[in-house]
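Section 5: illustrative case.
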């Protein structure tokens, strides 16, 4: 019985606009912090590359690889930040929880797992096959 109560609470929370907004804003803050940390790491790596005397090729390649990895992380974080911002806009505009392709409702279970989901499973699957 306790399992059912927990599931019911999760479903209610997943459909409560205030709880959704709070969760999305919390996630946005987390992602923004991660983004800031990644930017600081890139700045530090660039400073290390700039300040260090010309080293061997292995060191230079390693540092370039580190910069590339951090740049990729920053790009991914920016994409996730945009997803959360888009979800907040949809929530404010009344479109949250509805598929952007077909207009059907996105199942609550999907929104619990992926609060930034903008497509129902059939539409998402169709997009991934393209």
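Designed sequence:
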């Amino acid at each position: 019985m306790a399992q059912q109560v927990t599931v019911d609470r999760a479903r209610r929370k997943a459909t409560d606009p205030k709880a959704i907004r709070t969760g999305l804003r919390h996630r946005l803050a987390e992602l923004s912090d991660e983004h800031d940390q990644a930017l600081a790491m890139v700045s530090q790596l660039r400073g290390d590359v700039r300040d260090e005397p010309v080293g061997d090729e292995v060191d230079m390649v390693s540092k370039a690889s580190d910069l590339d990895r951090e740049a990729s992380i920053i790009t991914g974080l920016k994409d996730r930040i945009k997803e959360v911002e888009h979800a907040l806009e949809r929530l404010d505009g009344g479109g949250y929880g509805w598929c952007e392709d077909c207009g059907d409702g996105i199942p609550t279970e999907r929104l619990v797992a992926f609060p930034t989901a903008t497509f129902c499973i059939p539409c998402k699957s169709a997009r991934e096959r393209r």
